[in-house]
Batch of 2 targets.
Target 1
Amino acid sequence: MKTDITKMEYLRDVERVRELQAEMLESLAEIERVCEKYKSIGLPVANYQAYVFAHLKINLTAEHGFLSRDLNLSEVVEAMEQLEEHFDESEAPHE
């Protein structure tokens, strides 16, 4: 399969997806912390945890702790990592 992507670019892209995944998990944790502040005055945090935050965690990482067979971003990263065999050590595009 022909690609114009260099191995260096591929490695940067895989690392960037990992970084973005971590940032999304951090953002979700921050949203949960902010919502928790308003629980005492009526924000239905338990509902959001069950129906929003849990689903986001399931989609973001395999380390979510829920029983699920849904695909998630961790699997995207793993699939990208498996593409490494398509790149050799040279920076020339690989066919």
Note: The chain has three helices and no strands.
Target 2
Amino acid sequence: MSTETPDLPDLRERLDRAADAPSFRAVDLDAVVGRGNRLRTRRRMASGVAALAALAVIGAGLGLAVGSRPPASRDLEPAGTSTGPAPTSDAPLAWARDGVVHLGEETVRPAHGVDAFLQSADGLIVLGTDGRVRRLDAGSPDETLLDPSAPPIGDRFAPRLVTDGYAWVGWVTAPRAGDVQLHVVSLLDDGSAPRTTSLAGLGTTDASPLISISDGTAYVRLAEGVFPMRLDSPGAQQVAPLPSGAGDWVVDVRGGTVVRTVGDGTTATDQDGRTRTLTTDGRPILGSRGLVSPTGSGYAPDLDHVTVVRATGKADLDLTPDVGSRYAYFSTVYRWIDDSTVAVLAAEAAQGPYALLRCDVYSRACGTEVRLDSPDGLVLPTGERLG
């Protein structure tokens, strides 16, 4: 493999429409619901709840701090080797509508609109309606085009931005027939230039090729499997795909933990190669969408009701927060804020109202941070648009 450089009358229909195209294999929703589960990721509400991905902090007086590690008393040790800063749990839950990003009482209107957006450790990463990707740093009115040479993100793959939250952001373009390009940009002030890797001729699938970025590695889905591409060694990449069996589907990769759908279940493999089946209430977790926590220790599948489980270790551990009976109709994790905190999209009924909740997976406590009458036009910081 050669390369130039390394490596959201019904709510369910809206979620699935946003999630089907980007990066996950189509699944029979009726069959899954019939077994008591629903598909989720990014992705995905508001930018695609099945791959949902980050909360933004920008504007005067708003900043991001390094997140705390999980309390030891809950027996959830980090599985991976992520060492970069994580978003603080105190930062406002971000959302956008009509081209305006809301962060608590602060708002910001990017000059080129908001088609999708993400958060980095220092601000917002915004996909404008012009198809270009820009960075808006906290406390600064300036917008920086991340890769001036990159073509606009087109429609061959549903637009998707991916970040590890602090060091890298990536996306895929298809500027012309037969040409697919992976663009990766450093978010650190290290002077490194944007990197473009041509995936032409490598057998891309109908799904968006870029799955995740974690620990300095971009995970790219190609016809022959999911390939880890190292980003810290210009000109180098791993050519061996992640181990997989027939019918396996890689859902997400974070902190060294690989979550896959295997037959009628979901497995998690840690960085030492230990694999186990993930369950909830003693039943296998179904569906091909979900989110792994930043260090790989937890997993939030896309189900009708919010569910969080431990992804590593020898025994199952239910980490599902209590969203209360008010949101018995629907609730799902749309992003991990840090390894102990999740952001949840919840609805009292199909017609609303809706809410964005901040939940702690250790205390199980949740608090309502944003209330919305309607999801119309809503964009969440997942890197994807609502279909």
Note: Helices lie at 11-20, 29-34.
